[in-house]
Specification:
binds coenzyme A; single chain; globular; alpha+beta
Length: about 190
């Protein structure tokens, strides 16, 4: 019964095949509750710098409780896409992008992370674009991204997307903050 409930909720219409700038073919789909092992392998493959840029802390391990929260999502207040490659019939997650609505509001936080070998091929921009559009289509008003001030990749993605973005540099040395007003996006 539980499996049926999850299957019914899973928004298969966000699944797509994409080709990256280096010619690699990647499958992008919403995260499923069964993705725990794939997501753990993905986390364990990331460099310290990538983990720091994603979590804004030197997270050593992904604890089971956190892993569960990252895969058991409702696709409404918490939505996540995973990018997947298959090598010798073995699937691996190579990137994820998600938004999580804050409390009982129409405001969400977006995070994105790619495996170190998969950065700078256009995948980050693609996943961010998809998740921002999904958040917009669900009527959310705004989305924020917390980032380290040295995170040029994230700044470049948002500069090139042309979204209405406000940028607040950190005051307490924790993180800079970008906010996008979703309903004001014209493209
Ligand atoms: C930030 C991140 C998501 C960017 O994704 P990506 O796939 O590497 O970026 P893309 O290839 O889509 O590049 C998008 C643009 O940013 C530029 N860019 C990407 N990384 C860059 C970097 N380190 N320095 C300067 N420019 C960079 C690209 O040249 C590209 O510019 P263009 O659109 O003008 O051609 C990825 O590097 C990552 O996972 N970083 C670690 C986690 C993180 O920082 N998450 C953000 C906070 S939640």
């Amino acid at each position: 019964m539980e499996a049926f409930r999850v299957y019914r909720q899973y928004p298969y219409y966000y699944e797509e095949w994409i080709t990256l700038s280096d010619g690699s073919v990647v499958f992008v789909r919403p995260i499923k509750p069964t993705d725990g092992p794939l997501l753990l392998n993905f986390f364990n493959s990331l460099s310290r710098e990538t983990i720091y840029f994603r979590f804004l802390t030197h997270l050593e391990k992904l604890q089971p409780e956190m892993l569960k929260q990252l895969v058991e999502i409702d696709y409404e207040t918490h939505f996540a896409l995973a990018a997947i490659v298959t090598e010798d019939t073995k699937e691996s997650i190579i990137g994820t992008c998600r938004y999580i609505v804050k409390g009982n509001s129409d405001h969400a936080e977006l995070t994105v992370v790619l495996g170190d070998n998969w950065q700078r091929k256009g995948l980050g921009k693609l996943l961010v674009t998809r998740v921002v559009n999904i958040a917009r289509s669900k009527g959310l008003a705004s989305i924020e991204i917390l980032l380290d001030y040295r995170n040029e990749g994230m700044k470049r993605i948002f500069a090139s997307l042309g979204y209405p973005v406000s940028y607040e540099p950190s005051i307490l040395d924790i993180a800079d903050r970008m906010e996008i007003l979703l309903q004001e996006i014209k493209i």
